Amino acid sequence: MKALIETIVRSLVDRPECVVVREVTEGKTLTYILSVHHEDMGKVIGKNGRIIHAIRAVAQAAAKQSKRVEVRVEE
Which long-range contacts (CB under 8 A, 24 or more apart) does 58-61 make? Predict the structure, then answer.
């Protein structure tokens, strides 16, 4: 899953070498914390949050049903 998120985000940004995805597990919640270059932040979030919402939907669909998946963008 981490590789899937990295691949999607790296294809969106101008500085793919700055993309870092960390995975944190807390109970039944699996959180992916996404860090990108500050100039690429808008490309990852998109207008009205459409891009990050789509990334979250893909991550949720690819996850096991017993786990809740969150994707956060870190500044």
Answer: 58/4, 58/8, 59/1, 59/4, 59/5, 59/32
